[in-house]
Amino acid sequence: MDKTKLTMDKIVNLCKTRGLIFPGSEIYGGMGNTWDYGPAGVELKNNIKRSWWKRFVQESTNSYGIDAAILMNSRVWDASGHTSSFSDPMMDCKNCKTRHRADNLIENHSKGAVNPDTMTTEEMQAYIENHKVNCPKCGNYAWTPIRQFNLMFQTSRGVTEEGGNKIYLRPETAQGEFVNFLNVQRTTRAKVPFGIAQIGKAFRNEITPGNFIFRTIEFEQMEHQWFCHEKDRDNFYYEFKDKAMKYLLDLGISPDHLRFHDHDKLAHYAKAACDIQYLFPIGWSELNGIHNRSDYDLSRHQEFSGKSMLYQDPFTNEKFVPSVIEYSIGADRLTLAVLSEAYDEETLENGETRVVMHFHPAIAPYKVAILPLQKNLSEKAREVFASLSKEFMCDYDEAGSIGKRYRRQDEIGTPFCVTIDFDTLEDNTVTIRDRDTMKQERIAISDLTSYIAERIKFN
Ligand code: ATP
Question: Whose CA is nearest to atom 16 of ligand 1?
Fold first, then answer.
């Protein structure tokens, strides 16, 4: 299909009707920027996470996975700078009472010609005043001054709210990797350079429009910190840029829909940073970040915790605090990219439109659907399901016409449909249909596992 015709509404509707993703707390009227993954959606996201873990942990000799606690000692966030500066520049419209990010207002007003990332709060305020940037909701110019709004969710630990200690839901998973640097290095006997990866939930009090699962207040990150000597960091930065891009291409995302975007504004300790942007239905937007940081992260934790983060090179005996190359991608944002990329509307020979999700088979929610042609073939079909489901996530469907059942599987991107018919009872063969070509083949039940396994690999 012509991808310029793909709207977010189409994806949201398909996700809702096919059990991929539902609005959060829907029966209570929902809750802004929260979404629940349904039966097909949880499989899709789990498979994406698995493919990432395979690529970044399993296939690496010196990257190690962890699963750190979401709630961390508050000093972690002082050391990381989140308590003082993890904020968005917010403005309220006094007329319609909506809240907006000043940087987004400037970016939209200038149609991308002005980069607010390079501006101070005062410069943003001046731009909005000088250009009379109106409220995108009501069209009036009635702004409050810009206020920095911290995005961390707070809660308190202890029996009473007043007496309790203030703690935060982590806004990123990265700090779990930094504070475990020494634990992982010592227990694995890893030598620098090496990596620590984790997949986990992060929380941000985002108040700007979410655009479905692009921006949510609770989301999952897949992060990988690479610890290296300062002199090697530039090389590793380029290596990680390539690795990050290759992973997305291997997932089946078209190179035409991906691009690097270098950051103009860098943190004082950073040498370089870039995003990989994807052409979402809302336009080019960040999918994944790669940062060439200094020894800032470990040095700050050394300073705030009082624990030495020095590493001694066993060959040169040099002692140093390692630098970090950070690679970070949102599992939900990647799920949205994968959904947008896979979505297709085809016109069939009979004039009907077929909606089909061309997921890479490795991440498709179900690998195979077992479809008895008639209900009285269900015993044999359940036998086939029982054997295939030991290896793969399978769907089973015996309701409705076979055409409608194929369409349903196409819409959740099931790469193979296996039909059980009366010949199956005679000769133990089945028809297997390919999602993309719609071609059918007759094969022996005993060959099904290897046939499917061969075609769903993620390499
Ligand atoms: P943005 O500019 O879009 O707010 P960011 O630069 O703050 O993103 P990072 O802090 O670098 O994002 O987080 C790394 C990745 O985590 C992002 O590239 C994105 O994939 C994901 N991510 C960040 N915030 C959210 C969110 N609110 N909802 C979903 N995914 C998110």
Answer: 330
Closest atom, ligand 1, to C-alpha of 291 = 11
Model pLDDT for residues 317-353, shown as the tens digit of each residue: 999 999 999 999 999 999 999 999 999 999 988 899 9
Determine the residue of 80, 276, 328, 336 to mutate for testing ligand 1's pocket, defined as the one with the most ligand atoms within 8 A of the Cβ atom.
328
Nearest ligand 1 atom to alpha carbon 215: 28
Q: Is the CB of 173 under 6 A from ligand 1?
A: no
- Check if 101 has its Cβ closer than 6 Å to any atom of ligand 1: no
Per-position DSSP letters for 374-431, written without gaps between them: SGGGHHHHHHHHHHHTTTS-EEE--SS-HHHHHHHHHHTT-SEEEEE-HHHHHHSEEE
Output DSSP code: residue 169. Answer: B
The helix or strand, by DSSP H or E, that contains position 238, with its residue range, turns out to be helix 233-250
Structural domains in the chain, sorted by start = 3-35+62-70+162-340 (3.30.930.10), 87-150 (3.30.40.230), 366-455 (3.40.50.800)
CB atoms within 10 A of CB 450: 11
Our mutation pick for probing the ligand 1 site, out of 221, 258, 335, counting the most ligand atoms within 8 A of Cβ, is 221
Distance 330 CA to ligand 1 centre (A): 6
pLDDT tens digits, 232-286: 999 999 999 999 999 999 999 999 999 999 998 888 889 999 999 999 999 999 9
Answering whether pTM is above 0.85, one says yes
